[in-house]
């Protein structure tokens, strides 16, 4: 399968990667969660060229990860704000921080810590069963065909 075709399959990981699976898009999304909204701020934080940043932001807007909000009339300028769809990427970004802190942090350790506003405690994302709250490891799960695969197999 070619990279340009990765979003055409039935695998949700492949379809997700077709939208947010390049390093620049993930860094743009990370910056948005840290409060960045304006094109020039994304550019200075990430160091992307204007054309590449414009292309990535346009793709993220097209796929409704961001929406544009006009903040200036003359010249017309927009902010990029995460949609609900974009906000749902938060656990992925936080999990990537956690993985990076554990496996690839430099000698000084963590760059950031996430603190729960309500109680003041530092958080670490965990995968847990929504019914019994048991923490789930890869060997604790069984993967079975979902509706898309069942339809493909029966059709």
Task: Give a short synopsis of this structure.
The chain has 155 residues and is mainly α. The chain is built from seven helices and two strands. It has helices spanning 12-20, 23-33, 39-46, 50-62, 84-87, 90-103, 147-154; strands at 66-72, 77-82.
Placed side by side, the strands forming the largest sheet appear as 1-2
CATH class of the largest domain: Mainly Alpha
Largest sheet: 2 strands, antiparallel
Count of domain modules: 2
> What does the overall shape look like?
globular
Proportion of residues in helical segments: 40-55%
Number of helical elements:
7
How big is the Rg? 19 Å
The named CATH superfamily of the largest domain: Winged helix-like DNA-binding domain superfamily/Winged helix DNA-binding domain
Distance between the termini: 22 Å
Q: Quick one: how many beta strands?
A: 2
Q: If you had to describe this structure to a student in words, what would you say it looks like?
A:
- This protein has 155 residues and is mainly α.
- Helix content is 43%, strand content 8%.
- The protein is built from 7 helices and 2 strands, in the order ααααββααα.
- It has helices at 12-20, 23-33, 39-46, 50-62, 84-87, 90-103, 147-154; strands spanning 66-72, 77-82.
- A two-stranded antiparallel ribbon has the order 1-2.
- A hairpin with a 4-residue loop joins strand 1 (66-72) and strand 2.
- The longest helix is centred in the middle third of the chain and has 14 residues, at 90-103.
- The protein is globular, with a radius of gyration of 19 Å.
